[in-house]
Amino acid sequence: MTRRQLTLAAVALLLAGWGLLPEFSIAMLNYIGLYALVAVGLVMLTGVAGMTSFGQAAFVGLGAYASAWLCTDPAAAALLGLAPGSAVLPWVGLVLGLTLSAAVAWLLGSVTLRLSGHYLPLGTIAWGLSLYFLFGNLQFLGGHTGLASLPALSLGGLTLRSVRELGLLTWSVLLLTLWALHNLLDSREGRAIRALKSGRVMAESMGVDTARYRIKVFVLAALLASLSGWMYAHLQRFVNPTPFNLNVGIEYLFMAVVGGAGHLWGAVLGAAVITLMKQYLQDILPSLLGSSGNFEVIVFGLLMLLVLQHFSDGLWPSLARLGNRFLRPDRLAPARSLRELPQREPAKKGSVVLAASAVSKRFGGLMANSKVDLQVKAGEIHALIGPNGAGKSTFFNLISGVDDPTAGEVRLLGCNMHRQSSRAFALAGLSRTFQHVRLLGSCSVLDNVALGAHLRGRSGWLATMLRLDRPEEAALMREARRQIERCGLGPQMYAAAASLALGQQRIMEIARALASQPGVLLLDEPAAGLPYMEKQALARLLTQLREEGMAILVVEHDMEFVMNIADRITVLEFGQVIAHGSAAQVQADPKVLAAYLGGFDGS
Question: Environment class of residue 279 by beta-carbon count within 10 Å: exposed (0-12), middle (13-18) or buried (19+)?
Fold first, then answer.
């Protein structure tokens, strides 16, 4: 049995037993489904994208109150030209709640997501509290008393009055959400989202607009919370501020973390565990310890500590590892058609594609680079060398958009790149590796390399959720496989990137950079950590790329490697160019011999 078959069997079993389960069990399943919908948004936001939020309960409240107000205020119904009590009002309330939640999330995210470290979760606590007290202080929302007599939902002439009927809607929405988000994560857009947590600098260099993606994930999580709040309001038929306070927001985050913050189904497991645990603790502990104290809160906290201590990654990964012993991997369906990826027009061999003119960079009183001039031509390998601390990596960052020069000009393929981001450099045709390897460690080598082709895809979130991107995704994966095989990492294609040796990780970075089909390739110490035979393979690969017309700029400490492959060499010392020319010219330069090579004579 495969995972997909097991999932379908579980859904079929749930559906078959729905009419047989007692009312209490159906009610608990209803609440688990509603809470899981919020928690799955937090999995996307916190576990996948790396942004911690304690304020999701406020978005649940926005969805609930928007529909409750519209359904109970005759003036609001009249404004829409609808009669009070109309069966359409709850659905209009859903649209209003989602629209309001998206607008508030975009506004709050634009401010809050600029924060980093512990300031971000503190910011979510601040606006979570603010919205909670706002619900209680607005009289047209009923103040702390709330709004009552909400109508039941009607769907296709069927009125969903009971928890059994509404539960079918809740779980249908939850399962469709899980399917859509699984599709999203298994795509070009999903790889960009995964890069937000630990690889934002790298992702920007691959062309990912990380600020935009962070806002989009934040809004997505808010919309899921709002949808849960709307269904909760029409399940309870009553709304007041209590279910949307900060404590509940913390519980939602607990559900995501306990279940497994990086796993969609972990949200469902976490919601089930915490909901059932709270319910049974409230039933059992008063009979054992008396009803005079809130012992269930104390015991619940201790149990949470115990779970987190023994299952630091959540319960779902442990359950999944156990299941992997008995389940076969899902068979991937071949794409019916492959979409051709955009091809970059190669530059004419010998033309200058990257030019730095008098580029300087000052950090306070330290001049890291001083008036550096350098030109890289199509169809050549240009090496940048120098002793440690010479400013090579700083210069790499300046000519790739990671940092802005203090003075000077950088031109890429004829365009002035003054104050442009690394994403703009990637769009213009530059790709790079890093001195300290930057990768998505838990993702496969294939997914890491496919991220490099991000700009060659066009499908958006809606298309990926509905699996309309499959031809493009197949083409991106084909390109990633081609580059992996080209770089000699075929046997490691499906291994986790973090499991590779350092030298292999550097080769993987080169494959990722090549997946974008760059016009200019910057390699920061690509041979570091490679054994001799792999260095020879790398040299052959770079020579082949040169013959294809690619411009390559290499920073490297291995002098034998550099002298054997470089057409031209520029030498830096203390941030200044001290020599420039062919390998023979640089080796014979007295300044280079004195400053760096220590008498190297090329023999």
Answer: middle
